[in-house]
Recover the amino acids of this structure.
């Protein structure tokens, strides 16, 4: 069987990588005659049918009362368990960058433990059913605020499952971070959306500020102050585009001591004031 990469095979255009990507998947054959390789972590939210998912060293059967969180880097193939039925699910892909940002914002700095199981089983409930129904690849196509909405949907499902499954889910999320990501990058990217100062992030990395700056420029090819400011201002823009918050609600969270400095930095980056964006 040939091996195909997902989600790349679902992109309408080549070279359109995204941090979050949704695909409506439908299968009518009883066996998929191909293997797929996951290049991103993925939720598989099953809505119709029953399936058997085969991995390199294990397999699992799920029905429409269950969903799966699948670990990137695995290859798998799927077969239908009801030959007369169809299989329909929503695939929700998310990048490691989004995962690291989320873990830094909402979880403790727990040590990742090795997880040999390439999946986490989710039992569907009324809340998850409503969440799944809200997902559609068409909904987020050519939408002015698609990026901001997808960010909110990602945080929504992650927070709900953290509350539902507690430490078991938290530890599994930490295990999804690639070994290739250095501890330095993990700490930096886990605190992108905190309001920690450079000195405090350097302390978490067990470095002096000068050593931290040298390591940062080597890793990211730009000074840490500018890099962090750009990331935090982009988050501010996404929050304002969502329409529920004003600049006065978020400037402290973004790491600014006063609204005036935040507004000036925001306008310098985006060419418009926070008020213009939120209106």
């Amino acid at each position: 069987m040939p091996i195909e990469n997902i989600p790349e095979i679902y992109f309408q255009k080549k070279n359109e990588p995204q941090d979050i990507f949704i695909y409506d998947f439908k299968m009518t054959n009883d066996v998929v005659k191909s293997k797929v390789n996951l290049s991103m972590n993925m939720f598989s939210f099953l809505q119709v049918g029953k399936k058997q998912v085969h991995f390199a060293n294990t397999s699992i059967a799920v029905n429409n009362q269950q969903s799966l969180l699948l670990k990137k880097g695995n290859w798998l193939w799927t077969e239908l368990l009801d030959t007369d039925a169809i299989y329909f699910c929503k695939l929700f892909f998310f990048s490691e960058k989004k995962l690291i940002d989320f873990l830094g914002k909402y979880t403790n700095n727990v040590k990742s433990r090795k997880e040999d199981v390439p999946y986490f089983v989710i039992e569907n409930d009324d809340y998850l059913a409503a969440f799944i129904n809200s997902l559609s690849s068409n909904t987020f196509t050519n939408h002015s605020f698609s990026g901001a909405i997808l960010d909110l949907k990602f945080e929504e499902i992650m927070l709900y499952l953290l509350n539902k499954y507690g430490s078991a889910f938290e530890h599994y999320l930490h295990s999804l971070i690639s070994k290739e990501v250095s501890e330095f990058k993990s700490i930096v990217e886990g605190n992108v959306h905190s309001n920690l100062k450079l000195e405090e992030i350097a302390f978490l990395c067990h470095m002096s500020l000068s050593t931290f700056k040298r390591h940062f420029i080597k890793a990211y090819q730009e000074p840490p102050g500018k890099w962090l400011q750009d990331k935090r201002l982009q988050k501010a823009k996404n929050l304002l585009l969502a329409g529920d918050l004003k600049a006065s609600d978020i400037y402290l969270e973004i790491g600014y001591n006063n609204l005036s400095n935040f507004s000036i930095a925001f306008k310098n980056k985006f060419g418009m004031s926070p008020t213009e964006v939120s209106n």
About this structure: The two ends are 53 Å apart (CA to CA). The longest strand covers residues 20-27. The beta strands are 3-6, 20-27, 35-38, 41-48, 51-54, 59-62, 66-70, 75-80, 87-94, 119-123. The chain has eleven helices and ten strands.
